[in-house]
Write a structure and sequence with these properties.
The chain is mainly alpha-helical. About 50% of the residues lie in helices and about 5% in strands. Strands 2-1-3-4 form a 4-stranded parallel beta sheet, with helices on both faces. About 35% of the residues are buried.
Length: about 325
């Protein structure tokens, strides 16, 4: 397996998704490992071109508030500690300054690579953007031309659960602004939205022609053909919860070629007695999700039955249990 040269520019690895398969949790895990330097921006979207301003400008508002004294770094870090996130330091402020140049210069490749140059010596860094799972082959070839030595991380979740989680996310966004924040009423409002024309359109987009980010076997095939099998590591959502440190170790070993534990891992306080990850307060576990049942469940099973079989053949035990969940 080739090891990424230390002088190579840009991120050491790309996590390409899947969406709704634990990318936010992976960012949290790696940010608390001293072997990594993870940028404040999750989801750069540099290669798919979507949502670039939104992702970076959100952090720019924070930067402006800190610079103007309208928000104190100590208060920010106290909140981040409560949420299980690493503290913001001077290097992060330098990153936000580079991020501004990136936006002002039209999000060019050179500025994208430069943002990752801030990583401390001896650490690795990455770009976690689930939108990259939707890239076509020609776009992946462009990624490879800019980052030939990068390693690729693909997170798996069974396609039906992933699609249903995505539908629920869309429903929550549709009801934002006029939503009464009581769980039972939120549930009722989302069920009402699901039965509406708009809700049916959301379901249609996931079931009539399933999107590429619900086809992990095809995503893996495209990235493997271009980057090679040794450059790609695959993990399931269940592994992220049950073995967060193991995943951190494996990604580090894949990038550096070095085996063994890092000098310090700061997540022990976020593990339960069985060493499983405890969801942080900023996770969406407390938001309402409509139950998957009836006609919509049948439509999702029909739409993704073939992909579930392909994934079982490609990913082995990480996907072999998916069929049984839905009587396939």
């Amino acid at each position: 397996m080739s090891v990424r040269p230390p002088e190579a520019a840009g991120p050491d690895f790309l996590c390409i998704g899947l969406q709704k398969a634990g990318t936010r949790t992976l960012q949290q895990i790696l940010s608390l490992d001293d072997r990594y330097w993870m940028p404040l921006v999750k989801e750069f979207h540099h290669f798919d071109g979507s949502e670039i301003p939104k992702r970076h400008e959100r952090q720019q508002k924070l930067y402006d508030a800190l610079q103007a004294g309208g928000f104190r770094l100590s208060l920010l870090n106290a909140r981040r500690t409560r949420e299980g996130l690493r503290k913001v330091d001077d290097r992060d402020l330098q990153f936000l300054k580079k991020s501004r140049s990136y936006l002002e210069n039209g999000c060019c490749d050179a500025d994208y690579l430069d943002m990752f140059s801030l990583k401390p010596k001896g650490t690795i860094t990455g770009d976690i953007t689930p939108g990259y799972s939707r890239l076509e082959r020609t776009d992946v070839q462009r990624v490879h031309s800019l980052l030939p030595h990068a390693k690729i991380v693909l997170l798996l979740r069974d396609p039906i659960s992933r699609a249903w989680s995505a539908i629920n996310m869309r429903l929550r966004r549709e009801t934002r602004g006029n939503l009464i924040r009581i769980r039972s009423q939120q549930q009722a409002r989302m069920e009402e939205m699901l039965k509406s024309h708009r809700g049916q359109k959301i379901v249609d987009q996931e079931t009539i022609t399933p999107p590429l980010n619900s086809q992990p076997s095809e995503i893996y095939r495209v990235w493997r053909d271009i980057y090679g099998e040794d450059a790609i590591r695959v993990f399931s959502l269940e592994e992220i919860i049950s073995s967060p440190k193991g995943i951190s170790d494996e990604i580090h070993a894949t990038v550096t070629g070095e085996q063994g534990n890092g000098p310090k891992w700061s997540m022990e306080h976020l593990l339960d007695k069985d060493q499983n990850l405890i969801p942080s307060p900023n996770e969406k576990g407390g938001t309402a999700q409509v139950l998957l049942q009836g006609e919509i469940k049948a439509r999702l099973i029909e739409a993704y039955a073939d992909e579930i079989q392909k994934s079982a053949a490609m990913f082995g035990e990480r996907a072999t249990g998916w069929a049984a969940k839905y009587g396939l």
